[in-house]
Every structure is written in structure tokens, then in C-alpha cells.
Amino acid sequence: MGESELLDEKDIKKYEQIFKKLDVNHNGRVDIHNLRDELGMSEKYAQQFIAKSDSDSSGDVSLKEFIGYLQDQEKNLRLQFSKLDRNHDGKVELDEMITAFKELGVNMDYGEAVKLFKRMDKDGSLDISYNEWRSFLLLAPSTDIHDIVKYWRHSTYLDIGEDFTVPDDFTETELKTGLWWRHLVAGAIAGGVSRTSTAPADRLRVMLQVYHSKQKMTECFSYMLKEGGWRSLWRGNGLNVVKIAPESALKFMVYEQVKRFIRGETNRPLTIFERFVSGAVAGCVSQSAIYPMEVLKTRLAIRKTGQYNGVVDAIKKIYVNEGIRTFYRGYIPNLLGIIPYAGIDLAVYETLKRHYLSTNGSQVPQVWLLLACGSTSSTIAQVVSYPLALVRTKLQAMKVKTTEVSLNAEGIAMAHPIRDHTMSTMFKKIIREEGFQGLYRGITPNFIKVLPAVSISYISYELISQKLGINMA
């Protein structure tokens, strides 16, 4: 038996193992759902894979069809690899890849090339072997070099209702072609859908944070329904959705400017710490610009029925009765909360994802992996930064008082100045009255909404991206 036949037998056994993993129903067939659920492949690419491998047009793939497709795929992948391997040493280095892609008409800037290179370079050798190339692209629905690059690129948008996350990085090509604005639009719409879906949990959190007398979630939830009916569960959500677009746009613009400043004249990719610094600065600027909307959102969420006739009426009444500085109450703890939240969220998310990919050898982050990493990182970030968020919300909800009226010894009403609460005095007040556990009042609804918020945001973003012509491979 020849060496090529032995290799073919090994390959066939490998293909059979992959098929067995995908065939979760044990019916000898693999369909779109198996590819999507087991590999995290997008709906679009799963459909393309089935269309190209399903020779009898049955809508799914048998083991024979699966093996036949992968054998052809491997031959074509070897051909494409040889085109990139300019010096024929059996490996592709970064400069080699960039040069080859350029000659093949694929536009890719240095930063994106490094990012894609690292995704495939599992052993950290700073070059790509054929085995790494094949492992990553074997189940791609095409071997055309332009389609391979599309499959190689992967992006996602997760919105959990928090505004402290670090913005996504866009490639030079996306920036020059204007594709970036489609990502922002898709992200804004997905965020709106996600926040609206989880708005009752968000309002429940705010009510528990503000009203010390309502100790239990069930008690607080019953009060909201009794006081305003089921529609009151979405109070403040309209403004929470509206502020997504201006905040995301401003955060993106500042983020890009800070990245350029950090890079200087080079075009190198940013480290995690540099991304965190860029994201934190962008978050501080965007939050400063839209912060009055944050205060309004809180006031609208805790309002009683008939207290305000809409946003404009709320602005007028708050301004007349409490002054302009009310719209920046809680600003300091809000800014301070950006640092631990953005830093921990980014670091934990990247660490979990990279650890899984380095030990598991998965070629593309699966959907469940992205959702698990996103949920875990945001949960840990919330736990660390929550006391600051609690103080911020309580300060936002408090009405500004400069004087207080009391009766003197003769029974005459006298007005005297009072000291307004600051971040430090609010911390002391909470600890004095409720203990350290009081700093985490209302955190349970936050935990409850994380997973559905991330899932809804991801699914919404993918569907909207398809409509806008964004590749979500």
C-alpha cells in the first residue's frame, strides 16, 4: 500500500470523526442546524456549505458526500497555500501573506493581517504551517482566495445594556469604504432590540437601587405593576435606546483618534492594555457628552404615573426645580466606573476566548463560546464596578436641596442650608445604614438579564448585518 493511500485512509478517518461530531441525531446526515450549532458557523456559510456538498439536493449531507467535499476542499486548500508560500519552505510568514494577498487583489492593511495571522497561528511560531491552514479552513464553504479571507474575518457585537464597553476595531478597508457606519447602525439597532427586551429587569434594578424600603425583587416588581400597570415596566427605555446612536458614534470617533495617537507613525496592532486605554478615554468623552440623558433615563424610570408628560416635560421640571447641575449628578462615580468595567470586561473576554482557542484548536469562535465569554466577562466586570454604579444611580435619583425648613425653639419655621450628598458621603450613608452588602443592592436583576441580553444582541446583530450587506462569517 502506497504512502498516498495511507494518508488518504488517515484523512478519511479524520473526516469520519468530524462527521460523527456533527451528526448529533445519529441519522447519518448533517444539515445546516448541525453546522451552525456544533461549529458556530453562520447561517449564511452553513447554507453555502450544504449547497456545495449536497450532490443529490436532499437538503442535508451524507457521510459519502461529506468526505467527497472535504477531499476536494483539501486539494484546493493545498493549491492556495502553495500560492502564499512564496519561498516554498512549507510555511507562510506574515510578510509573505501580505505580499501574496496584495498580488491576488485582496486589500488588507497590516493591522488586520496581524490579527488574522494570530487567529490561525495556534502554536505561536510566527508562521502558518499547512496543518494550521487546513485545520482553520477545511470546513469553509469555498476555496476562492477572496472567499477564504471573508471566512477568515469574524466580528460580533454584544450589547448587555451597559455603556462602558470598549468599541470594536475596524480595518482600514472598512473605514475607507464606509462599511464602518453599517456596523454602527447594526449595533445600534441590535442594542435597541436587546435593551427593549430586557427593560423590565433594568427598571427593576433601578427601583431596588433607589428605594431602600423595597427589600425583595418580588415586592418591588409587584409595586411597579400595581402603580403603573405592565407598560410601566418599560419606563425610561425609550431614552435608553435613543442614546445608543449618538453615544456609539462619538465613542467610535474618539476611539479611532486615540488609537492613531498611540500608534504614532506605525500601523501596528494595539495591545490589550492600549485598547483598554483607548476605550476608556472614548468612554469618558462619550459619557460626558450624553450624561444628561443618563440622569433623565433614571428619573423617567423611577417616576410615578402622571409625574411627567414625556421627556421634554421632565427636562423643564427638573431644570426649573433643581437647576442645571442636576443633569450631572453622579457624574464622578460614573466616570470612575468606566475604568474597572471596560478594563475587566475586555481583559476577561479576550483571555477566555484565547484560552479556549489555544487549547481546543477551534478554527472560528463558536457562537456559544462568544456568548459564554461575553456573559462571563460582563458579569465579572459588573460585580467589580457595581458599587460605583449604585452610588451613581442613587445620586441621579436624588432631588437637589439647598435648604431645609424646620421649626426652632419658639415654633417658628426657619430655613437653613443643608449639605448635598457627594459620592463619598453616599458611600458612607449606604454602609452605615445597610452594611457592605448594601453596595450590591439590585445586582440580581443585572445577573438575570446578562445572558438574554447578550444572546438577543448577537442574533439581532447578525440578522441586521445580513440586511445591510455586512459579512458576519
UniProtKB/TrEMBL annotation:
Q: What kind of membrane protein is this, topologically?
A: Multi-pass membrane protein
Q: Where are the Solcar repeats?
A: 178-261, 270-355, 365-467
Q: Which GO terms describe its biological process?
A: transmembrane transport
Q: Which residues form the EF-hand domain?
A: 10-45, 72-107, 108-143
Q: Which SUPFAM superfamilies match?
A: EF-hand, Mitochondrial carrier
Compartments, record wording: Mitochondrion inner membrane
The source's superkingdom equals Eukaryota
SMART domains found in the cross-reference section: EFh
Keyword Transmembrane annotated: yes
GO cellular component terms listed in the entry, alphabetical order: mitochondrial inner membrane
| Keyword Transmembrane tagged | yes
Coiled-coil segments, which residues? Answer: none
**One Pfam match:** EF-hand_7
Q: Which GO terms describe its molecular function?
A: calcium ion binding
Arranged from A to Z, the UniProt key words for this protein are: Calcium, Membrane, Metal-binding, Mitochondrion, Mitochondrion inner membrane, Repeat, Transmembrane, Transmembrane helix, Transport
CDD domains hit by this protein: EFh
Q: What protein family is recorded?
A: Belongs to the mitochondrial carrier (TC 2.A.29) family.
- PANTHER family to which the protein is assigned, alphabetical: SOLUTE CARRIER FAMILY 25 (PTHR24089)
Designated name of the protein: EF-hand domain-containing protein
Could you tell me which species this protein originates from?
Chironomus riparius
